Amino acid sequence: VIQLLWDHTGQVLFGAEKCGTVKGYGMCDTDWRVVEPVWQMHLHDDAVTKLLMLPDPNPRRLLTAGLDAGIRMVDVTHKKVVVDFGAGNPKWKRHNKGVFSMA
After folding, report:
1. Residue 12's pLDDT is what?
2. CB 48 within 8 A of CB 38
3. Which three-class secondary structure string do you get for the chain?
4. Confidence of residue 32 (pLDDT cuts 50, 70, 90)
5. Checking DSSP bridges between strand 80-85 and strand 72-76, what pairing results, if any?
6. Overall average pLDDT of the 30-37 stretch
7. 73 has which bridge partners?
8. Do 16 and 28 touch, CB atoms closer than 8 A?
9. Which residues does 96 contact at the CB level (< 8 Å), separation at least 6?
10. pTM given for the model
11. How many structural domains is the chain composed of?
12. Among 95, 72, 80, residue whose Cα is nearest residue 1
């Protein structure tokens, strides 16, 4: 499970539930302090940019932007959008589910 967070500057960052979850993409710790930008992962920069451009993220717009990077919408809650990374990318051996946190 990967959780993506917006910091106070609006930069998208990520943390991992277990350090081994994001091998080669940075360190993580148990209290979810975020240590690496999301574009260190396999997400395309253009999709990240589109997500950052949404001041009040709308699930439908997020889905549209996410499709460009093979991100498939899974579920939406009040301030979190659960997505499945790499759903449209055949190079991925498995899907990596994650949470975009809007808080």
Report:
1. 43
2. yes
3. CEEEEECCCCCEEEEECCHHHHCCCCCCCCCCCCCEEHHHCCCCHHHHHHHHCCCCCCHHHHHHHHHCCCCEEEEECCCEEEEEECCCCCCCCCCEEEEEECC
4. very low
5. antiparallel
6. 33
7. 83
8. yes
9. 2, 84, 85, 86
10. 0.20
11. 1
12. 95
